Amino acid sequence: MEKGQLDASNFDQIGDISAGRTPARRNEDESILSSVGGMPVEDVAWATEVYDNAHAKGLGQNLLLWDEPAIK
Q1: Which of 2, 41, 62, 64 is deepest in the core (most CB within 10 A)?
Q2: Region (Disordered): which ranges (predicted)?
């Protein structure tokens, strides 16, 4: 985009797609490119908020990921 080779109007935000405000694909021939970046601390903060909201609403289920904790 910085070099003028890509038009910003051809890009959609993942939030708009997941909320249904923008279609994920407009036709069968369309290619999808995703660029994921950011800081891990932001990912953890966001995941904590999602978990807290789900827990408060009684949503989700407990998962047994291993038989014993890795750290005791």
Answers
A1: 41
A2: 1-34
Cβ neighbours for 54, distance < 8 A, ≥ 6 positions apart: 60
pLDDT band (50, 70, 90) for residue 30: confident
Q: What angle do CA 11, 17, 19 make, to 5 degrees?
A: 145
Please spell the DSSP secondary structure of 17-35, one letter per residue. HHTTSS-S-SSTT------
How far is the C-alpha of 52 from the C-alpha of 66, rounded, in Å?
22
Q: Which residue type occupies 49?
A: E
